Amino acid sequence: MDRILGWSRWLVVPVCVLLLLQWPLRDLIKAGSREANDSAQALFALYIALALTFASRRGAHLTAASWAESFAPRTRRNMARMGALLFLAPWSLFILVSSTPATWQSLRQLEAFPDTYNPGYFLIRLATWGLAALVLVQALIQARRPL
Fold this sequence. Notes:
Blueprint: H1 2-7, H2 12-29, H3 33-58, H4 65-68, H5 73-109, H6 121-144
Helix pairs in contact: 2-3, 3-6, 5-6
């Protein structure tokens, strides 16, 4: 999982290129800027889903570090395990269950962006569902780590 998540950092390059191309496409070529924006949105959704999981696995996400550092390392690890089990796992499971029908329908229809009708909106829904799945897997991994 770390290898896949490590490679995902390169998704930021096409996102930046697509976003930077919007101006010349809109003002100079007079075509393609909306498609570039929609493509960048879909890639950005996938990037964020993977980046948040990567940050969680590395312990690099935002935390209440100053408060947590007042506890012993063993207590901090136990708090992280309990947080994963009590908060992350149930919430991600809820998101997975509640969003599965809409995500599946969007995927079957290859849903387009509502304002431009460009294809690819289903990728954003799929990335959201994937983020919830990755959070659940990470929470279960964290809960099983030895003390």
